[in-house]
Every structure is written in C-alpha cells, then in structure tokens.
Amino acid sequence: MAYCMALEYADRETLRSHQIGRLNQLLADVLPRNRFYADRLRGLTPPLSWGDFASLPLLTKAELVEDQASHPPFGRILTYPEQDYIAYHQTSGTSGRPLKVIDTAASWRWWQECWRYVYAGAGVTAADRIFVAFGFGPFIGFWSAFESARAMGALLIPGGNMDTARRLEAIREQQATVVLCTPTYALHMLEQARGQGIDLAASKVRVTIHAGEPGASIPSVRQRIEEGWGARCYDHAGATEVGAFGYMCECQAGLHLNEAEFIAEIVDPVSGRPVAEGEEGELVLTGLGRAGWPVIRYRTRDRVRHGGRACACGRTTLFLPGGILGRADDMLIIRGVNVYPSAIEAIVRERPELGEFRMLITRAGTLDALTLEVEVEAEPCAAQLAHTLYQRLNLRVVVTAVPPGTLPRWEQKARRLVDLRQAAAEQTDAPQVSLAALTAAR
Ligand SMILES: [Zn+2]
After folding, report:
1. What is this structure's pTM?
2. pLDDT at 324 over 80
3. Using an 8 Å Cβ cutoff, are 266 and 274 in contact?
4. Which end of the chain is more exposed for a tag (fewer CB within 10 A), N or C?
5. Cα separation of 375 and 410, whole Å?
6. 412 alpha carbon to ligand 1 midpoint, in Å?
7. Contact partners, residue 226, CB within 8 Å, separation at least 6
8. Where are the beta strands (DSSP E) in 152-242?
9. How far is the CA of 441 from the centre of ligand 1 (A)?
10. Distance from the CA of 268 to the center of ligand 1, in angstroms?
11. How far away, in angstroms, is 208 Cα from ligand 1 center?
C-alpha cells in the first residue's frame, strides 16, 4: 500500500481497523501458498479477530534460520514461486548464520513505501539531493532507501566504490543536501574531513539519516553528528527479515513505529505478555505488506520502551522513547552485570576529547573482564572515563588510552566488540597471554 500520511495521525479505531483488514488480506494471500505458514498456522481460517491474532504463536529468528537450513537456499517461507523474486539481501550474520531474504517486485515496492515514512519524518522531499555513503553490498537498508528516494523523485547520488576522501569531495561537489550512512561512518567522515581541513558544517547537507546501528538515537552521538555536520540527524530502525519499521520525527526524542504497515506489540521477553505504557520489553512485529516474505508476530530481539501514542509532532503511532535501547543479541554479562554496548557508547560520546573506541572481553580464570580502548591524547581522561562508567553502569572497566587514529574505522555496521575469551581458552599452554598479543593475533 502506498505511503499514507493520514494514517500517521489517525485515531486508534481507524488505525486498528486498517491493520486488521490488511492482516486478513495478507493471510488470504499467504496461507494457501506458503508452506511455512500453512504448517505453522494450520487450522486457521481468515478473517481473524484481534483475539485470534493475540493467540498466534510468536516467531523467532532461530525458526527462520532453521527453516532455511533444512530447505536451502531460501526455506519454505517463500509465498510465491522462486522466479517471481527480484531482490536478494541477507542479514549481517553478527549473531549467527546470515539469513537470506528475497523479495518479489510487490514486496520490494512495499519496502520503498515504508521508507517514505522515514523521509517524511526527516522532512526530506523530492527537492533534495541525497548522497548514499554505502558500498551497495547485500545489506538491505540503504538499497531500499535509495530506490525509495528515486521513486519519490529526489536526485540520488550513489557513493559506492569510493573511499572517504572521494565521498567527501562528491558531497561538496554535487551539493548534496541529505546524507545516508551508519552513524559510525558519519563520525568517521567528520573526523577525516577535519583532518583534511574541510568544514562539513559549511556544506549544503542539512539532514543525515542513519540505519544499521542504534547510534542516532543516542543523544551524545546525535549531538556530535549534528554539531560536526551542521545538520539535523535522524535515526531509522529496520531489519532485513522484517522491514523498515521505525523513524524519527522532528522532535527527535525517539522512534515512531510505522503502524500503517506493521502491527507492533511490546512484550515481556519471558512471559510473552504485553507490557504497559512506560515499561520496557521486546518489540514484536507483524509486517502488513510483504506477502512475498511474511513475518507474523516476529520477535525482533530489540529492547524498547512503550512510550504511548502522544507526540508533540501530532502523530498518533506508537512512540519508542530513545529508539532501540539494545538488542538481546548484543547484551553482555560481565561479572554479573548486564550491559548493552550502546550504553557504553552513550557515555564515551559525551566526551568530545575521546575518539574511536573498542571493547575487549577477556577471561582470567573463571571471571570475565571488559577492557575499553579509547583514542585520546591525555591519559587522565581514561581514568575519568573508567570512573564514570563505574558510577553510571556499576561496571568496572579497564580503560586504556591509545593514540588517536590507531583503532579500526568502519564504513557500515561497526564491530567494536572483540571477544577474546575463546582465543584465551585456546592458548592455555602459554603461561602468560598478554592482551596486546591476543589483539594482534586477530
Ligand atoms: Zn513525533
């Protein structure tokens, strides 16, 4: 279904009636053709009521991976014959085997329509020139953003097959007004521009939109990007297997959930019961327009807070304050303390004197330890950072200062977490394994 602004501002009853209608239409398309759901939802006859919907089983990524492993290459989840599919993408595989996800022409158009909400939230229009700082690999996010902007009528400037210097030049030369990239890469371009004496704040760029990582919803990260680029920085949330589901409005306080194209639930990850407004839980999504690769009551593993449905922008869709707060896959347990890497990043980015950083998990005997390497000129800053991390997260972290420009830089999703526990276990013969040696070995 095409982008519909009215649904973003609709009353609850209108939206719910739209959603259940779309769900039943989807099920009518999917159930007779899709072997995965025919098995899973056996005995189900549309039209469903909301009560019926609430009793459907929750779907996990592990089930999709298992389906694909046992029915290669794409699994039984394809609703239509393989020759009807036109777009191939895959998940990043950071939490296991990558999932291969393909779309029909109609399902791929749906992805593009979902991106229209992202652009509308950020005030991007057909008059914009959009530079996409992305290598055009199998990561779905910026492919769909690119094609959606083209369909909207904006001028698209592809930034594939370019190093950072050439991208900075292209942004200036072509007078781009919007830049799409991961938040990590926005910071990296900023750093490189400064090194080359380029002031990005003086460029024509007025909006940056980010995906792939939670950074743009972390206030300290967003502030750093906005100040450096002289632009407004917007977050977006999506997932290859689900769609482009979350976007920021001009209030920039979190994400709106696209309830025109998804049914959103926030549940307690243990009991599966819905949480109340103000509480945190796991986001569960049902896509309403992707019949070619449908997900019904899918556990995203994203931890979010239920922020109700009132926002100063006037939209009435579910609001997630602070965006995606963390991913179940990312959570670390260090000496009994649960911590998300995004919480550490939020604290690092508050201090402008700190550059790139990296987290190393090591094991001494039976105890895990977290070392944070951070690029900084002055050693005392490291000690101060360790103190702040302990105060805010109740977590003892060894903070090591490293010279600026020495840690890896990232173009797409950053991999700032290095788990050295396995490496340590394999080297138990060595009497003393230094952190430096283990890091160098990777
Ligand atoms: Zn809003």
Report:
1. 0.86
2. yes
3. yes
4. C
5. 15
6. 27
7. 232, 233
8. 155-158, 178-181, 207-210, 232-239
9. 47
10. 25
11. 17
Tell me: do 324 and 340 sit in the same domain: no
Residues 315 and 353 in one domain: no
257: CA distance to ligand 1 center in Å?
Answer: 10
Residue 91 Cα to ligand 1 midpoint, Å, equals 29
User: What does the pLDDT look like over 226-244, one tens digit per residue?
Assistant: 999 999 999 999 999 999 9
> In terms of domains, do 302 and 437 share one?
no
What's the gap in Å between 234 CA and the centre of ligand 1? 12
Kind and range of the H or E run holding 88: strand 85-90
Domain encompassing residue 309: 1-328
Structure tokens at 300: 């995203």
Of 328, 343, 377, the domain-final residue: 328
- Asked whether residue 247 falls in the same domain as residue 386, the answer is no
pLDDT exceeds 80 at position 429? no
Of 308, 328, 348, the last residue of a domain is: 328
Q: From ligand 1's centre to the CA of 313, what distance in Å?
A: 4
Show the tokens assigned to 180.
Answer: 């799409």
pLDDT digits (tens, 9 = 90+) for 371-426: 999 998 877 888 899 999 998 888 889 999 999 889 988 877 788 888 888 765 55
> Which DSSP state fits 274?
B
Rounded to the nearest angstrom, the distance between the alpha carbon of 312 and the centre of ligand 1 is 6
Q: How far is the CA of 119 from the centre of ligand 1 (A)?
A: 13
Statement to judge: residues 339 and 379 lie in one domain: yes
